[in-house]
Design brief:
about 280 residues
Length: about 280
């Protein structure tokens, strides 16, 4: 298994498309803190007779985590090309004939793809976050009233939870793309099928999130907990429903559990199909 992983990582790290996606993620994250520097720089403004402070804070995840909403597309492109070549060129068939078990091949593909996306996510977010910290600092917390340390701790907790969401969602995305690849066995049809799933999934989740989040007051949102948890069965829903709910984090654990269960089902289905499917 170590040799399979080594070969997969060598192929991944020497793939031009991987580094193009990597650079695009970083630039996509940096665009908001660079272009919106005027509003993010610490400044005062008038709200009637009251003078308030505005500026950058950790809670403004759009300045360092916007790439999370592109992870599904990165997974589609990367895995369709990375694993699709093995399906199309006969490399997978040769690996099976060489005696490698299909379950082990699936596991290696999953681990390589997941770690590749995880590194992309961590580096993109770290660069943007460090840029914001260096350029804008944490001055807003010390001018907003209350305990600055407590507010920073609260926002850091949200940051940790957002990253947990991203990691679970990435696993689900990887599993879905590999599952489609096993079913259709060709990279272009696999990419198209996952893209169709993602479009319809996003449409459904967006309509549900609007109904639940935007058209209800805070009391009614609590009554929609079941719908929010059902939304999180899809990784897109987990990101959207939980990100908009930073103030009501009683949803976090059940939503996370739902998406984790979905991910497990997808992975198990992929392993079963990998062993049953005629891939030769």
């Amino acid at each position: 298994m170590f040799r399979l992983l080594k070969a997969n990582f060598y192929k991944l790290l020497h793939s031009r498309i991987y580094w193009v996606l990597f650079a695009f993620m970083i630039l996509f994250d940096l665009r908001m803190p660079v272009l919106d520097s005027r509003s993010l720089t610490l400044h005062q403004y008038q709200n009637g007779d009251e003078t308030l402070w505005s500026g950058w804070s950790i809670a403004q995840d759009y300045t360092y985590a916007t790439h999370i909403w592109l992870l599904s597309y990165a997974a589609m492109i990367l895995i369709s090309l990375f694993i699709g070549d093995d399906f199309s060129s006969g490399t997978l068939r040769n690996k099976i004939l060489a005696g490698h078990s299909r379950s082990r091949l699936y596991t290696c593909y999953f681990i390589t793809s997941y770690i590749g996306l995880l590194i992309m996510h961590i580096v993109s977010e770290s660069i943007s976050l460090l840029y914001c910290l260096k350029k804008y600092g944490l001055g807003l917390y010390y001018r907003s009233g209350g305990s600055a340390e407590e507010m920073i701790r609260k926002d850091l907790l949200c940051l940790v939870k957002l990253n947990i969401i991203a990691m679970i969602s990435m696993a689900a995305y990887v599993g879905i793309v590999i599952l489609c690849m096993i079913i259709v066995r060709r990279k272009t049809p696999a990419f198209i099928s996952v893209m169709i799933w993602d479009i319809f999934s996003n449409m459904y989740i967006s309509s549900k999130s609007e109904d639940i989040i935007y058209f209800h007051d805070s009391e009614n949102i609590v009554g929609e907990k079941r719908s929010i948890i059902l939304m999180s069965l899809d990784p897109n829903g987990l990101i959207q429903s939980t990100r908009h709910m930073f103030e009501t984090y009683e949803y976090f654990s059940p939503c996370l559990i739902c998406c984790a269960l979905t991910t497990c089902i997808i992975i198990i289905s992929g392993i079963i199909l990998m062993n049953k499917r005629d891939l030769k």
